[in-house]
Design brief:
single chain; alpha+beta; 4-stranded antiparallel sheet; 4 strands; 34% helix
Length: 161
């Protein structure tokens, strides 16, 4: 059974705040803190505490790739020797055009165990990026599954009452 953790009203306000758009300014945390009437230092301390207390598991950005001009996007699946998955994933995740990189279990009818999401301005560019990744890691066996349709991207929202 999961231990229930008490979350203060201030922490709830901070979580609601962090679920919105991140301000594109030189001091984004100062701007966010001002929205709820606290100092930037207090906001950062509360975020740090909530992470340490496992009240916040992760924070991340959602790339709306089409809005920034990436029209060719593909999930590239790789057949990586199991003993090299961590090393290869780390290397591939460092590429600036790879937004996601994660491992999956193999299936009887699917040998691929590492998945990378590659964003480009053309299919040719995606192919070149995959070739770069292959050359950098020595892993050649891959399939490229191109995006055919954009799905609505939504995240869980907490404390919206």
């Amino acid at each position: 059974m999961t231990e229930e953790k008490e979350i203060s009203e201030l922490d709830r306000r901070i979580v609601r705040l962090l679920q919105g758009d991140f301000p594109l300014v030189s001091e984004p945390y100062k701007a966010l803190a001002a929205e709820i009437g606290i100092a930037e230092e207090e906001l950062l301390a509360r975020i740090s505490s909530m992470r340490a207390e496992k009240k916040i598991r992760k924070m991340g950005a959602v790339l709306r790739h089409r809005e920034v001009g990436f029209t060719a996007n593909c999930l590239c699946v790789w057949d990586v020797p199991d003993v090299r998955v961590d090393e290869v994933a780390k290397r591939m995740a460092e590429h600036p055009r790879v937004s996601h990189c994660y491992d999956r279990n193999r299936e009887d009818d699917w040998q691929y165990n590492l998945y990378t999401m590659i964003h480009g301005y053309s299919r040719e560019e995606c192919e070149n990026i995959a070739a770069e990744l292959a050359a950098a890691t020595g892993v050649e066996d891959r399939r490229m599954l191109y995006t055919k349709r954009e799905w609505k991207k939504t995240s869980m929202l907490y404390f919206t009452e």
